[in-house]
């Protein structure tokens, strides 16, 4: 299932506009904060899909009954670009466990590249709700690699993939390689074009560099 939040009129699109704007994105602190705020909105929308049960709470004047989710959540992000988005999700799912994945593009002289897995640090995910965050899905290969690596730590009850901007090609790649019966993809926008170096057009540029500065 794919849920495209940017199709609905909301403040979400203001933050999406700002991270795309080449002038506003020069402010790296604002860029990180906008990714974080987008993560918070994604978290709110995902919360509607969780399991809930009636729970009693003692107030100073009596007892109130409220539906509260009992799902155990693991938030995983692909470093380094995924960190601000991860923080936004964690702001709302503040009891969640956390996992971090290192993935890297290794370019060849002809401009082609392969995704290289670095390491994975995180808890077991058996019967937990897994959320994987990466601001951009270009070819989709890093997301598939991250998901498959996480499965070494167990079988989640459901997986939510969160990305602000994806390419149509990247989404199709993921759909062909993952069991979509147990996966929901949450997106802000889907762009149609990829460059020969697999950058999304119009996209926004390199999210990691915009958030944390250029790398050598």
Biggest beta-sheet profile: 8 strands, mixed
Count of discrete structural domains:
1
Briefly note the CATH topology name: Rossmann fold
- What series of H and E elements makes up the topology? EHHEEEHEEEEHEHEEEH
Number of strands: 12
In words, what does this structure look like?
It is a single chain. With 216 residues, the protein is of the alpha/beta class. The chain has helices at residues 12-20, 28-47, 83-92, 141-150, 168-177, 207-212, and strands spanning 2-4, 52-59, 62-69, 73-79, 97-107, 113-121, 129-133, 136-137, 158-167, 183-191, 193-194, 200-201. It has a single domain, classed as 3-Layer(aba) Sandwich (Rossmann fold), CATH 3.40.50.2020. The strands form three sheets. Strands 1, 4, 5, 6, 7, 8, 9 and 10 form an eight-stranded mixed β-sheet that branches. It has a two-stranded antiparallel ribbon with strand order 2-3. The chain is globular.
Supply the key terms:
30% helix, single chain, 35% strand, globular, Rossmann fold, alpha/beta, 8-stranded mixed sheet, two-stranded antiparallel ribbon, 216 residues
